[in-house]
Amino acid sequence: MTWDWSAVSAFLPYFRDGLLVTLQALVLGSLISFGLGLVWALSARARARWVRWPVGVLTEFVRNTPLLVQLFFLFYVLPEWGLTFSALVTGVAGIGLHYSTYTMQVYRAGIEAVPAGQWEAATALSLPRRRTWTAVILPQAVRRVVPALGNYVIAMLKDTPLLMAITVLEMLGRARLFSQQNFRFTEPLTVIGVAFVVISYLASLLLRALERRLAH
């Protein structure tokens, strides 16, 4: 099999469309996982047992089942219950929900790493509970967990090809479509392999810059 640059050129429109979908899934999935993970982490520390227990059961179940199974459930089972969404929306929600159970643990570790003196100082100043969290605890916790959250962004990027299983044509899906139509596999798969490396590297650079900024 010889390398054919004309095949690369022909694949670029497919690649562009797939790249856009991959980045949409990555960005939106990351936002959902970060936001929902924080909700889980705070709910797990709630005083009411009726809040803590369901959150614990849900997050353990999601974290201990494969993402692919969850995507199939959301895409094929929920419509039977009257809940129908587009493939991309389902995929983004699935990735965000799945990884929120991991970012929850990251937030939990960051919160527990805040020195006890910070809690005591907030109490001594008679700060309301909400103010204690938003002004004292969470800003310090988030600064500590940015590197770990960044690792999950890279992990989410590498899991986006799973969306192809529910008909989302991200980069791998577009490469497969092009290969089936043109009987060329080496060029499209190589292009998306390089793209994953480049995107991962750029994401790591951005996260390092954010980490340095938050450290000051």
TrEMBL record:
Main location: membrane
Pfam families the record matches: BPD_transp_1 (PF00528)
Keyword Isomerase: no
Alphabetized PROSITE patterns for the sequence: ABC_TM1
Gene3D superfamilies recorded: MetI-like (1.10.3720.10)
InterPro entries: AA_ABC_transptr_permease_3TM (IPR010065), ArtM/GltK/GlnP/TcyL/YhdX-like (IPR043429), Ectoine_EhuD (IPR014341), MetI-like (IPR000515), MetI-like_sf (IPR035906)
Localization: Cell membrane
Residue ranges annotated for the ABC transmembrane type-1 domain, each copy included: 15-207
Family according to the record: Belongs to the binding-protein-dependent transport system permease family.
Family matches, as NCBIfam families: ectoine_ehuD, HEQRo_perm_3TM
Name of this protein: Ectoine/hydroxyectoine ABC transporter permease subunit EhuD
Source species of the chain: Streptomyces glaucus
